[in-house]
Amino acid sequence: MPTRLKCIALVLAWSVLSVLVISTYGHNVWKRPGCHKVGKFDMTVPVTLYMFQVRYCHTRKVSIPDCVEFHITTNACRGFCESWSIPSAIETLRVNPFQLITSVGQCCNIMETEDPQDIGFSAAKTYDDSI
Fold first, then answer.
1. Rounded to two decimals, what is the model's pTM?
2. Where is the signal peptide (predicted)?
3. Domain check: are 104 and 69 in the same one?
4. What 3-state class would DSSP assign to 49?
5. Structural domain total, the chain
6. 39 and 70 share a domain?
7. How much of the chain is in helix, strand and coil states, percent to nearest 5?
C-alpha cells in the first residue's frame, strides 16, 4: 500500500508541475494573471482563432479627406481582471459596521504611453495623364 501511495503522489506532483510549466511558458502570455504588452511591436506568437492567425493589438483606420484610407496597427496592453473578497478591515467596519466583506479587484489599464517612431508616407511628387 505505501508503494501505491508513493506512485499516486508522484503522478499528482508531476501533473501539477506540468501545468505550472505549461501555464508559465505558454504562447498566450496575456492569458496569465496580470497585464501584458502585446501587439505588432511586441511580436508575440500568433494565436490560431477560428482558423485565422491573429495578433492581439490595436488597429485603427485613418481617413484623411480626399486621400487614401489606410489602417495602422500598434501594440496595446491585454490581461484579465482578477477579483477576490476579504474580511473587512477594522477601519472599514468602524465606518460601516454592516460591510463585513470587502471586494477587491484589479484590471489591466494603460498607465503610460509612448510616441511611435517617425512613420513616412509616400505622396505624389509629379503626375501625368496616362493613355
1. 0.33
2. 1-26
3. no
4. strand
5. 2
6. yes
7. 25, 30, 45
